[in-house]
Amino acid sequence: MFGLFKGKKKEPKSPADEAPVDDTAATAPDAVAEQDEQPRLEAGLEKTRSRMGAGLRALFGGRALDDELLEQIEEELLLADTGIDATQSILDTLRREAKRAKTASEVRDILRRTLIDMLVPRESEPPEPPPGQPWVMLVVGVNGSGKTTTIGKLAQRLQAAGHSVALAAGDTFRAAAVEQLQQWGERVGVPVIAQKTGSDSAAVIHDALAHARSRGIEIVLADTAGRLHTQSNLMEELRKVRRVIARFDETAPHETLLVLDGGSGQNALVQARQFGAAVDVTGLAITKLDGTAKGGIAFAIVQETGLPIRFIGVGEKPEDLRPFEPEAFVDALLGQDTGAAVGSGSRG
Ligand SMILES: Nc1nc2c(ncn2[C@@H]2O[C@H](COP(=O)(O)OP(=O)(O)OP(=O)(O)O)[C@@H](O)[C@H]2O)c(=O)[nH]1
Ligand SMILES: [Mg+2]
After folding, report:
1. Which is nearest to 92 in space by CA: 68, 70, 112?
2. What ranges in 12-66 are assigned the alpha helix state H?
3. Could you tell me if 282 and 256 are in contact, meaning their C-beta atoms sit under 8 angstroms apart?
């Protein structure tokens, strides 16, 4: 479930509470929930899947890998914003393996493995807070990328899983930003620590941390104003927010999550570079993948930044914000295994 929150589970209040909170044991209710999740993920990624997958599915359906098909696959991957480097390594794998493999299903398995490996980050161990201190996530990104919505959805999922959460209304810049977060707080039933628009973002977030510590709240999700790297005053504000959080607890923030709009394509790469340079981003959320055929950006971005994708947004509902799992993501893009033999299908 929330791999990110592993080891952060609340002690079960009673044995009956244990099953929904435990994300390591494969209990029966969890297994049922997972069965429903793959079709949901596939539906959310439908646009990307149709753009990047036709050539690949023809190959897996038994069509021989000739130059024409290779070109089609290359074009589809690039159109889905998979990026030149990631696309080339996918094509290299195909050229190499399609010769050796006896069945289309073998080619598929090898490509599947290659794609999954591409999504595995160069990750270092995330820090943990000292006992009695909240786990802190600072959420950053450009305007409208989905920061506040992602926080709301995460709060809902965490709350449902038995965690205690507080939200920090660190977007003190945009009018109505505080209200938007407060609405989420009310909806989910978690406290929102806020001051009025125009106040100091770092001070609001500091208040939220103090509130969480004094009440034994486990997790603080801190919203920030959307900003571009060119707005140097706002980028400096983010650095200050980080310094203030670190003064509260030197291990914090335990995650600095950069929220990227999946539809922004190659721009997302630029944002990852710029925010990474300014505030030491430790994880990514890619939102709005349901509305775009450019979901190949996930490969490009992990390849380039080495950062882990923590969550993806594939729809408007809270359950459409999903912890990112490379296997499930790749399976949703590639579709079902047909098991056909290489070259046995008609070329039409
Ligand atoms: N379809 C879809 N819409 C999303 C997703 N995530 C966010 N949105 C929508 O994107 C819009 C912007 O989301 P916000 O959460 O307000 O974005 P923000 O980054 O906080 O924006 P600023 O605070 O202005 O910087 C809202 O209409 C959300 O409903 C997603 O995964 N899928
Ligand atoms: Mg916002």
Report:
1. 70
2. 15-21, 28-44, 46-60
3. yes
Distance, in Å, from the CA atom of 123 to the CA atom of 52, rounded to the nearest integer, reads 27
Closest CA to 264 of 235, 297, 290: 297
Is residue 140 in a domain? yes
Domain contains 64: no
Q: What is the pLDDT of residues 313-325, one digit of tens each?
A: 999 888 889 999 9
Nearest alpha carbon to residue 155 among 231, 244, 223: 223
Percent helix / strand / coil, the chain, rounded to 5: 55, 10, 35
Q: Per the structure, how many domains does the chain have?
A: 1
Q: Of ligand 1's atoms, which has the minimum distance to the CA of residue 291? A: 1
* 257 alpha carbon – ligand 2 mean position (Å): 13
Domain ranges, residue 311: 135-325
d(CA 151, CA 245): 18
Tell me the two tokens of residue 126: 């995330």
Which residue, by CA, sits nearest to atom 14 of ligand 1?
146
- CA-to-CA distance for 131 and 134, rounded, in angstroms? 8
Residue nearest to atom 4 of ligand 1 (CA): 288
Is the CB–ligand 1 distance for residue 288 below 6 Å? yes
pLDDT tens, position by position, 29-81: 444 455 578 888 999 999 999 888 788 888 888 888 888 888 999 999 999 99
Residue 121 CB neighbours (<10 A) = 18
